[in-house]
Amino acid sequence: xxxxxxACSYPVVHxxxxxxxxxxxxxSDGEATxxxxxxxxxxxxxxxxxRQDELPRREVWQSSALADVLVTIPSGIKxxxxxxxxxxxxxxxxxxxxxxxxxxxxxxxPSSHGLRTNSNAVSYMDTYPISGIILKxxxxxxxxxxxxxxxxxxxxxxxxxxxxxxxPIWQDLTTCKCLGRSIKSARVLPWTQxxxxxxxxxxxxxxxxxxxxxxxxxxxxxxxHIPTSKRAYEIMWENPGLASMASPAYVVQLQLCLxxxxxxxxxxxxxxxxxxxxxxxxxxxxxxxxxxxxxxxxIQTGCLLHLARWTTQHMREHQVWHSSGALVRAAMSVxxxxxPAKLPNMPALEAEMRRRLWATIMELVLDSxxxxxxxxxxxxxxxxxxxxxxxxxxxxxxxxxxxxxxxxDPAEFTDTSIQIAxxxxxxxxxxxxxxxxxxxxxxxxxxxxxxxxxxxxxYRSLVKTLHxxxxxxxxxxxQYCELVMSRYIFALHITYMPRALKDPAQFYxxxxxxxxxxxxxxxxxxxxxxxxxxxLLAAMHNVLxxxxxCDDWVRLVTNGSGPFRSVPFAAAMVVAAELTAIIxxxxxxxxxxxxxxxxxxxxxxxxxxxxxxxxxxxxxxTKWMKARIQAGQPNMKDLVFITVVLAGIEAAMEGIPAEKxxxxxxxxxxxxxxxxxxEMAGTATSTWNHxxxxxxxxxxxxxxxxxxxxxxxxxxTMFQPA
Length: 722
What we know:
Blueprint lengths: L10 E4 L2 E4 L12 E4 L20 E6 L5 E6 L46 H6 L4 E6 L2 E3 L12 H13 L2 H19 L16 H13 L10 H11 L11 H15 L9 H17 L7 H17 L4 H17 L14 H25 L44 H7 L2 H11 L8 H24 L6 H19 L3 H6 L1 H22 L9 H9 L7 H9 L3 H27 L15 H26 L5 H19 L3 H24 L23 H4 L14
Antiparallel strand pairs: 1-2, 3-4, 4-5, 5-6, 6-7
Helix pairs in contact: 2-21, 3-22, 4-6, 6-7, 6-8, 7-8, 8-9, 8-10, 9-10, 10-12, 12-13, 12-14, 13-14, 14-16, 16-19, 19-20, 19-21, 20-21, 21-22
């Protein structure tokens, strides 16, 4: 990969000797080009080992709008040989333009389906796998959300041009960025370090937040013992002054539960400043507790902090990945990775809570691995802790021994049923996370299909388990399980989406699985009510009603961060890619295309219904992005990008130039975004003395338990005198 310093060169090892690679000319700032890695795809160096020709090559697409995208060229493929892009040896284009595949020499205006581009990136990414992304000086595997933007190269080209030209659209993006910083700075509440619980809400609001946490995340990720937590919660609120006497450790843990519950309080996340403050206090407490070693209570607090950051704080994926790794090591230091049956005798409550907590940590590690596009750094050989028993929390206490608690039938729904059901799929999901995020794994579609077959078998077993439970799980629990499993389908197959459009015979299964998954996720994550205004969708709804929405789930994907933003975004990008593919295929097969627009063409009934369905979901995705901004996520790039994607597709269907439509819709979305953010910031400012640059922002712009009990503290010291 090129150095960012034009005068710098790196030694390249060939056959055990270092050969200096001379400096190469660099593309100008903002220019999107493909270039071979020095010493790998270039001319053969003297003394080069012949075996070097058999190694895979790495091509780098350098995009100022996205990142450096690394593409692997299989061994044995030469730059100009059959099956390899002919553009590899050509001079890079001076920026992308819109052209059609069968464009004649009369001009560069796009045709009625003019979404194709002559960007050098396309001819690589639809033929060879992407092996990694270097985004803001960090390396990610293709499970990172940023990869999904490559499914719409026409929108990437548009964004590339706007970043390079730094015209009105770029200036509006800069304004949004400044407004976003102003909004974030206004959320910081005054606080004296070491004072915990000063920003607790009134009792009525606290009750709502605590119950919201218990019915959502605590019902999936088991972290606290519900009766114990409720008892302590009630004690703290018995009189108005008792909260100030509570142990800081417990107040911090309670506040994290409230921070998570605040995500579900209303549609605009009005309690976000308080939730961010509670996270800030927890981070300070964990870092400044001064304890010589972690306790199980600290691990509980760490898990809650992890979830609170997901739901409340727009935290970078790699930071969550780092914190989950530290959480694993802290858990191992207190023996959570060992099954309690192999440790000294302890009460049933402690044994079961240790199993639950370890299962939660494994889930958090896997989730953060997929989020960040990094290996999970965990192996089945690293632990022997079994899954928890099928028990309700009320059946556990410190007086029962490990063999004295009778667990329920697997079909009977309990407080741990969802965690157990997901835990049975952990081994499969871990193997997939290791496979897709490994630097040594060869890109093998056969291996991908094998893993996919095993995953779908586990998926079907999970769904069957959920439907067999009585009473039935909540809608939130079911949809959360859908989200978890869908991520691994995307992780396995989404890298084949560009290639599936070029080689449908070989990669059709990957394309179909991605599209079906995206449609299922979108159907219960996007606000489809307004789509019923469409007569065809209304008729479809009458025949086959859409899945009913869960308010908790809709608020989570609207107010939350992390996977609750990235997975629906990926689904929207898959929907857009499928819609674009259908338009191109219709153009290639319909004699009417090129004569009248697609939206007036008598297309096949099946494809026509699918186009309406996909188009409606993509329009709903733009409304979802706007709702996220109104809920306090000041990230305009998501909204602008998906608006431009949609504008290009609609223009292609109408037979008008896509670039003009994308410019117009992009400006319109930004104008509305500036208005929303300015209102939230309480200012009408649209100019800045020192506008920030874009170089630092990528696309898309946290006692000995053996002797004193499980919780890490005695109940006698839970509340200290003033």
